[in-house]
Structures
1.
Amino acid sequence: MTLDRRRFLHFGALALGAPALGALAGCGRPGARGGGGGGSGTVRFQGWDFESALVQQNIDRFMKLNSGIKVDYTPITSAQYVQKIVAEYTGGTDPDALYVYDDSLAAWIGAGYLQPLEGMPDLDKVYDTIYPGNAETMTYDGKRYGLPYYTDCDAGADAQ
């Protein structure tokens, strides 16, 4: 199942409430879908295992508010996350949505794992509400690829 634009924006609302690191990104090669387990109305979502119980609570709340969409969430051990996701894409079982580490974004775009969000309804309006540095982190080669769901800062770096 390819994640359509409407479903992604609805799903992005879920991600904005989850406390973890990275970005939620639209996945899959346009027009081609791996062996993803999603049937009609099902989103396969994968992320690292930080606060997975809280993420599941947010998913449950999202599904209650969006009764036509089921989310199958798989938390993956952080130390193995990148290797597991790459193996899934290589094997054709890629998820519909996932967390992306900042340092994996360009490589995963280059490999065709992620779809840009350009052309989605209200994308400019959503990006206008995001801190500019966060928006830049999710932008590659002029195209936007994700929605943030957590951010922090390192005030100590400038204070010394």
Note: Residues 5-145 form a domain with the D-Maltodextrin-Binding Protein; domain 2 fold (CATH 3.40.190.10).
2.
Amino acid sequence: MDLYNQLRGEGDPDKRTELMKQILTIGQENFPVIGVSLPGDTYYIAKNNMRNIPQTMFAAYLFPTPAPYDPFQWYFAAE
């Protein structure tokens, strides 16, 4: 905070730049890193005689599978 207060009161652009670099360095060294984890690949099971199913089904929180794929249009072919 002392560096930030100095930055706010500094009139020289070069000194402000140097103070800001110091602040960013401190932040970089002390910032906790939060890893990102993505869900694994999904899969689905369909019978061999089931038709009109897309090759790829996307899954997401706002795109709940299988509803957007209109399962009412899927059908079983006569064997």
Note: Residues 1-36 form one domain.
3.
Amino acid sequence: MKIVFAGTPEFAREALAALHAAGFDIPLVLTQPDRPAGRGLKLQASPVKQFALDHGMGVAQPHSLKLDGKSPEEAAAARTTLEHLQPDLMVVAAYGLILPKWALTLPRLGCLNIHASLLPRWRGAAPIHRAIEAGDPETGITIMQMDKGLDTGDMLLTEREAIRPDDTTATLHDRLARLGARLCVEALEMAACGGLTPTPQPAEGITYAHKIDKAEAAIDWAQAARDIERRVRAFDPFPGATLQWEGETVKLWAASVLPASGAPGQILHANGDGLVVACGEQSLALLTLQRPGGRRQSVRDFLQARPATVSQLS
């Protein structure tokens, strides 16, 4: 079976590596153009591109696949390449570009997507973040037959994954990436012998995982402590949850809920190993913080460097 793979970040690299290890023929990889990264803002290849080049796969990096979009020449070149290859299937994982109709229908078996949720819950860009933020007890992977809608295609394979009480987006991402890679290989092996059975998504239970906005990072102490704690974990590693501390924007990376109460934002305790802030319901013990330009540090180290002189957080 001849496969074209489309993906960009580490989540997708895990799937590409699994398909390569399983012996599938992958003559071409589509991935996003190199982006500036690091302090020097040097152009950096995506994890998928790095893997593809290391293993002798062809790479294409169009800015768009829409023939009437901002880069029609690149889209036309990509289409010509795919028509020449005549792939049996395209596997898509966190690619970051919308596939137009021509791309969806060109492969003989269409396009499969590895989606990090149990569809139809959390369609969209940030399913891992939103599942943690919402307090979902579980999530999973859906292998889906792509159509022109936003994560609306028929389901082919699903597998569940529990969300642990201490999961961050980083830790859950890694488990789901491994699960998605394994499930994708299983799906392609089944597709090769005609063993996949499409199942339409239920009409009930649809939710959308909207893209994370940096503006969401600021903590609102009027919210319940349990909601803030979940958001802290959901926003790790990006964009981080932030609070204002003596004129600085400080990131909060770990916290726990306590039963104490007070006015939202009131510092109830601030010495030794403890920094407790009242919320709209209950309170939050801040455990791991990070000053601008610094590293993550324990609350003890944070308070030793700058003891609390404020009584209310905004």
Note: The chain has two domains: 2-209, 214-305.
4.
Amino acid sequence: MTHENHWASKRVRAMPESVFLLMDRAKSAARAAGKRVIDLSIGASDLPVPGELIAELESAARDPATWGYCLKSCTGRFLEEAASWYERRFGLALDPESQALSLIGSQEGLAHLLLAVADPGEAVLIPEVAYPSYWGAAALAGLEAVPVPLGEDLLPRLEAVPAEKLQRARLLVLNYPNNPTAAVADYAFWERVLAFAERHDLLVVHDNPYIDMVYEGEAVSPLVLEGALERTIELFSFSKSFHMGGFRLGFALGNAEAIAALEAAKAPVDFNQYLGIQRMGIAALRLPADRVLRDVQVFRGRRDALVEAMQSAGVPVSRPKASMYLWLKLPNGMDDVKFALSAVEHAGVALAPGRGFGPGGKGYVRFALVQPPEVLAEAGRRIAQLLD
């Protein structure tokens, strides 16, 4: 969005310009020149949607009961299944009527949540490296996005937030396992977060799409901790665990007042996701855990192939413990956008420039593990050669 656009609101003009559009043009130019590009810039799962889920959608499409608008009562079965899934997994029973809400993807949910729980001029705390849509959603809601510095463990240093910013802060947005850094947070971290949020009267928003994509340790849910339901809302997605990115389905769980505010904000905007896709979600949440784990092992193998290829070529990279990304610090203060553009042109590999993820991402690039192991290994060798 250009700043000269006569019809653009102040909120839209405040949205950060996207380096991903620049990368998209670079990829298109390379392909137009006849080059084959290994695209590792977009974090969309390339694995197939489980067949049982497709069968549910096919059946639903032939059912006239699914063809109309889907109001709140239409989401009841889906939310009951979401609450049951959460209780099976984490041992906490939630009320699907007041503590759960259907989303058209967690990205939509987060954008509407910022509109629902904060007023223009208030502040939202976001780690200095975060999923790009967080920054845009904050601008669209008229909020000041306050970057929170990261420590060596890639977790936010909440004590570093200036006091004057905290006075206007309304909520804190987090995401673990993390995109793009692949950092994992344990319950001790979440206890510190909740204590901090209570001191400063913040709503904690946890975006948790990578809950299943963990290779070492475990992904946790802060909702189970004592006092969490008083000030926490958690967003879940079907895009990563079940490869349903294009179907746009998710759900929110947590504090009943925040859920009610989010429902009110969504009411004039959408009629919920198509019932057939909700039925896919129900089937997904009922899949045996080993089915999901099987696909996680595919990404583990990809991670290992990329890391080992780069390490063998002399690039010091750490092995990610979770998610579907490798976050690489470039040497010698190298410009991440220039390097990413050069990688497309000279190495035929598309990466995501780090600054697209926030001010702390400058000097980094992100690899998405969305190609077979042998292709990732080749990409790793090409990038190592370019760095050399």
Note: The chain has a mean pLDDT of 95.
